[in-house]
Fold:
Amino acid sequence: MTHVSRAAVRPIRVDEWPQVKALRLLALQDPAAPIAFLETYEKAAAEPDSFWQDRAEGAADGTRVRQFVAEDLDGSWSGTVTVLIEEAGDGDVFGGAIDRRQAHVVGVFVRPEHRGNGVIDALFETAVAWAWSVPDVARTRLYVHEDNARAERFYRRFGFARSGQTVPMKGDPSKLEREMILDRPGIPSGTAQGSPTGA
Structure:
């Protein structure tokens, strides 16, 4: 296995919607998918091509959504991550209120054969750097299922920390999704207005 450099990570292009669809469907068939994603394979597989075209168009060069992929030398994609820019006053996917402009990392996936060779690090370095380039974004957050220890280990290693906020998992309210946050370097935690989102 070869180490993926940061240069191999790039935003998707609008015309790459078939690859976006294929990688998402693969991710939703991963054994960890039930605790890693809110969407199901069955729902995603039933979506028309227009859904994937719209998704790619919005995430290719948008200012509120950006999807990144790790591209191998042969052009295949080994992993992906998407960054959403959340605005104060909006609602989030769990029904909570957003109290500040912030980035939200979602859709994290690395193909099994590429895990452990730096793909996830390269994806997060690029994604978080893009988040910090957005004006007034001083915090990046994500949610991790309480049983997804492997993912949480990486997030901690990258610098994320639990905020103390949790939400019930959609579809199984007996389980929790934990919010983890990463403050922008040089900006002390709590400097931005408001308190950590969640409930």
Summary: Helices lie at 17-27, 33-36, 41-45, 49-60, 119-133, 149-158. The CA atoms of residues 107 and 143 lie 11 Å apart. Confidence is low (pLDDT under 50) at residues 191-199. The chain has six helices and seven strands.
